[in-house]
Amino acid sequence: VQLQASGGGVVQAGGSLRVACTTSDRAFSRFTVGWFRQAPGKEREFVAVICRGGGSDYQESVQGRFTISRDNAKRTVYLQMNSLKPEDTAVYYCAAKNTILTHCPIDVDAYNYWGQGTQVTVSS
Known about the structure:
Helix content: under 10%
Strand content: over 45%
Order of helices and strands: EEEEEEEEEEE
Structural class: mainly beta
Number of strands: 11
Shape: globular
Radius of gyration: 13 Å
């Protein structure tokens, strides 16, 4: 499964960006998809996840600012990021895992497939 992340860029604090994760895999609707991020010198961390069944979960620091959504027809998962802060600066990665409806992991090690990452930079 190949995942393509896109949509990163440079934005001022308080601004918005939307990143997208796209695949050509026809089994996409059976995947749970997560967004993770990695800042320089730090470990990769969970940001948000959208389950195969449609539920979602967020890291506490982005709750209320970020929204994850999916369009199975387009085989794409979006992460809308509002009220961005300098501490949101990182490379953002999407990851996918073929799961049952109720399984929605947030651990990095749980995911089989990873995109190449897209840089998000928030200036103060």
